Each structure stands twice: as structure tokens, then as C-alpha cells.
UniProtKB/TrEMBL annotation:
<keyword id="KW-0460">Magnesium</keyword>
<dbReference type="InterPro" id="IPR011206">
    <property type="entry name" value="Citrate_lyase_beta/mcl1/mcl2"/>
</dbReference>
<dbReference type="Pfam" id="PF03328">
    <property type="entry name" value="HpcH_HpaI"/>
</dbReference>
<keyword id="KW-0456">Lyase</keyword>
<protein>
    <submittedName>
        <fullName>CoA ester lyase</fullName>
    </submittedName>
</protein>
<dbReference type="InterPro" id="IPR015813">
    <property type="entry name" value="Pyrv/PenolPyrv_kinase-like_dom"/>
</dbReference>
<dbReference type="InterPro" id="IPR040442">
    <property type="entry name" value="Pyrv_kinase-like_dom_sf"/>
</dbReference>
<keyword id="KW-0479">Metal-binding</keyword>
<feature type="domain" description="HpcH/HpaI aldolase/citrate lyase">
    <location>
        <begin position="22"/>
        <end position="185"/>
    </location>
</feature>
<dbReference type="GO" id="GO:0016829">
    <property type="term" value="F:lyase activity"/>
</dbReference>
<dbReference type="InterPro" id="IPR005000">
    <property type="entry name" value="Aldolase/citrate-lyase_domain"/>
</dbReference>
Length: 281
């Protein structure tokens, strides 16, 4: 019998997902631990995690899992590859498919063509991994079918020669944030910080949050909870929002031009705290 998805994570809308766990489809043994983890969203990976000669078997493995009780997103191969069409043809019939992550998205029409091959309404998460993709991010964010943007840091660095220093990647991250806002999408998803756990991963999440990104990819189930914590409102922010909203409800008078923006921020923090179950954390 297929394992149950983490109930807390399963109830969270994907637009609010903080941790996005990539689970290699090279083995079905990777699926159950991923689904039981604290990851807000789980992505079965039939792209980078699977060598070319094993992709057909990995695709069948994913379709079988999504047809026997499991639910997950799937990272499919890029539209320029020989695998894209077969990936979508197989997944379009899988009842447990929550959405697809399109690798190597560089043009808006690639998202639209992907969405057209899936069941109507299936969300497409555009993984932007190149200089061309970053420069086209605004058009990609506004394309029919685009649900959210994600940053493929590793391939972007290989494409451009950029280091992993936050300053070197700031333009690309900012471009995805602004593009997401223009396209009226949820905040974009940052790339994984490979090998980082604990305090190192929390520090990476600070960079993600400071840029305006609201999610982060990860490769290990034990990284998910740290990312959730790092990309959630802090205890001090929640307390501040609680106090301001209580005062507002009691008839607090607008004091200056900053009041309404602060009130809007408090309301947003309150909504996120409710969604993430943080009020009593």
C-alpha cells in the first residue's frame, strides 16, 4: 500500500510551499521517505537525477507510483530533449500528478506547450537555469500555464561562470522576484544549497528570504524542516503582527503615512502564520 503523505504538508497550498524536495526517480525507495517528510511539496525527479539510459524506466516508475495512491510533482526533462514529449504523454494520465516542474525553461512558449499536453489546469513550475531564461523571466512568468518560477542555481552557474557568492547571484534572484510580481505569481523558489544542513542552511535561507524569494529546493528530506523554519515568519515578527492587529481591532488611529503599509504587512504575516500553523509554535 502506498504511504500516506505528510498530512500537514498535504493540506498546504503549493503557492505557499517553502520546501520543495527533489526525490530521485532512480529508485522507488526514494519516494516514501520524501512523502513522509516535512517537505511542503515533493517533486519526483526524472531529469537530472536519472541518467539517460534509465529515463524510460524512471518515467514508468513515477507513473506507477502516481497511479497507486501517491501524489507528487514531477520534474520533467526540458522541451529541447528527446524525453519531454514522452514524459508528458505518460504523466498526463497519472491521477496523482500535482503538477510538473519544467527543466531548462528559457522561453514562455515552452511553458504553454507543456501545459497544453497535460490535463487542463495542471500547474507548470518553470525552472529557470540559464542566462537566457533569466533574461526572459518576465515573459515566462506571464505565460499561460506558469504557476511559479524556480531558480536552477547549479546550471545557471555553469552557464554563466558565476560563483555561489550571494552577490554573484543577486541579479538572477532579483530578476525572478520582480518577474514573479509582474506576472502576479507567488514568490519564486530558490535553488538548493547542496550539502548544507542546520545553521549553514538557515544562513542560506536568510539570503533567499532577503531577496524576496519564498521557497527553496532541497535534495534531502532532513533539510525540509530547516527550510520551513527559515522561510517562515519569525517569532518576533508574529508577536509584532499580533500586537499591531490587536491594537488596530481596538480602534488604533492611523498615526502617519507608514501605518497602512505596516498594517498590510502585519495582515500578511498573520495569514502566513495561520497557514503554517505558527501561532502556538
Amino acid at each position: 500500500m502506498a504511504p500516506l503523505r505528510n498530512s500537514r504538508a498535504a493540506a498546504l497550498p503549493a503557492k505557499l510551499s517553502r520546501s520543495w524536495l527533489l526525490a530521485s526517480a532512480a529508485s522507488e525507495q526514494n519516494f516514501a521517505p520524501a512523502l513522509a517528510s516535512e517537505a511542503d511539496s515533493v517533486v519526483f525527479d526524472i531529469e537530472d537525477a536519472v541518467p539517460a539510459e534509465s529515463k524510460p524506466e524512471a518515467r514508468e516508475r513515477v507513473v506507477e507510483a502516481l497511479s497507486t495512491g501517491m501524489t507528487a510533482w514531477v520534474r520533467v526533462n526540458g522541451i529541447e530533449t528527446d524525453y519531454w514529449a514522452d514524459d508528458l504523454a505518460a504523466l498526463s494520465k497519472a491521477p496523482g500528478l500535482r503538477g510538473v516542474m519544467l527543466a531548462m525553461t528559457e522561453k514562455p512558449e515552452q511553458v504553454t506547450h507543456t501545459a497544453m499536453r497535460l490535463q487542463a489546469g495542471t500547474p507548470v513550475l518553470a525552472l529557470v537555469e540559464s542566462a537566457l531564461g533569466i533574461e526572459n523571466a518576465t515573459a515566462i512568468a506571464s505565460a499561460p500555464g506558469t504557476f511559479r518560477l524556480a531558480f536552477g542555481v547549479g546550471d545557471f552557474r555553469r552557464d554563466t561562470g558565476a560563483s555561489d557568492d550571494p552577490m554573484a547571484l543577486a541579479y538572477a534572484r532579483a530578476k525572478l522576484v520582480v518577474a514573479s510580481r509582474v506576472g502576479q505569481l507567488p514568490g519564486p523558489i530558490d535553488g538548493p544549497t547542496v550539502g548544507a544542513l542546520g545553521d549553514d542552511l538557515l544562513e542560506a535561507c536568510k539570503v533567499t528570504a532577503s531577496m524576496g524569494m519564498t521557497g527553496k529546493l532541497c535534495l534531502r528530506p532532513d533539510a525540509a524542516d530547516t527550510i520551513n523554519h527559515g522561510l517562515s515568519p519569525s517569532e518576533s515578527e508574529i508577536q509584532w503582527a499580533h500586537e499591531l492587529l490587536d491594537a488596530h481591532a481596538s480602534g488604533a488611529v492611523v498615526g502617519d503615512g507608514s501605518y497602512l503599509p505596516r498594517l498590510a504587512r502585519a495582515q500578511k504575516i498573520s495569514s502566513l502564520a495561520d497557514s503554517y500553523g505558527l501561532w502556538n509554535a
